[in-house]
Amino acid sequence: MKDILHTETWRRWILTAILYAFFSVLPALLILRFVIRIEFAILMAVLVCQAVSFIIFRRKFHATAARMVTAVCVLFEASRGEIDTAENQKVSEVIFNKDDIHNLSFLMLWFSAATSVVVDALLPWAIELQFPLADLWKLIGCIIALYVTHEALHGLAALTSARVPIRSLHFGINWRLGALYCHADRPMKVCAFRVFVVLPMIVTTPVAGLVLLWDPAIWSVLLLSVTFAGCAGDVMVLLRARRYDNDRWIQDHPSEVGFIIFPAGETPAHHALVSEPASPEGESPAD
To answer: Which of 141, 200, 240, 259 could serve as a FRET partner for 218 with CA atoms 20 to 30 Å apart?
Structure first.
């Protein structure tokens, strides 16, 4: 797929149009039709406007689509048994690009919003379209609570699954990415690292979904979407970490979104690696 997007053929424009329709046009039409419930004629007018905007800004849409697809495909390219032998014999840093994380976050945001709309169309009750001031405060309060819980769950997973001492956990705000972070400055096995990364997503996202079912409204749709999209960095780290054997040693990166993987069959004691928590401006590990 990513090879098609990087070639000058008609196939790349078809693929770009499909991605644009799936991640931009379709969610917008679902929201307009089933949430706002606008008339069909107006819906068609919106569709025409989106088609015209795609034609006018097609190169920009193509560049964005190519970057998104490349970033996602890289995560699925290699399985555990396909890693280069040379990579197994050295300490390697795996760092993710900030723009790629934002692009994946955008896709996850739209996916969860569109899913909420589809669920709303299938269930007997409808999403409340009004957005009073009280709902705004509920949204802000729940987002803060879930994001704090998200980082606390990272810490809990490090303490229980990886047996990291509590003094090795560091919490703070990454001002560069505008996100909270939890950093563990001690190596752990890959199997424990996966739990460390994924636990917040498998807890906070269902909780946000239950809030949507309990109070179907615009604010709860936004809560679910923002909560799920906030796990984009964790998803990228998890999918990349799946390439490595469970018994290898891995360490949360001290200053970037990513990790440090140690050679197969060796412990971190073989390498003079010092992990000091970076300043809040530069640190963004498992966020």
So the answer is: 200
Overall size of the chain counted in residues: 287
Do the Cβ atoms of 232 and 101 come closer than 8 Å?
A: yes
Q: Judge if 284 and 230 occupy the same domain.
A: yes
For residue 36, what are the domain limits?
1-77
Domain boundary among 60, 77, 94: 77
Mean pLDDT (the chain, rounded): 76
Q: Same domain for 118 and 236?
A: yes
Strand, helix or coil for residue 185 = coil
pLDDT tens sequence across 62-86:
666 666 666 556 555 544 444 444 4
The residues with which 183 forms a beta bridge, in sequence order, are 170
Supply 203's token pair.
């807890």
Q: What share of the chain is helix, strand, coil (3-state, %, to 5)?
A: 65, 10, 25
How is residue 172 written in tokens? 């703070």
The H or E element containing residue 62 is helix 58-76
- Give me 155's structure tokens: 């810490």
pLDDT in tens, 18-31: 666 666 676 666 66
Q: How many domains does the chain have?
A: 2
Q: What 3-state class would DSSP assign to 171? A: strand
Q: Are 72 and 118 members of one domain?
A: no
What is the structure's pLDDT at 218? Answer: 84
Q: Are 283 and 181 in contact (CB under 8 A)?
A: yes
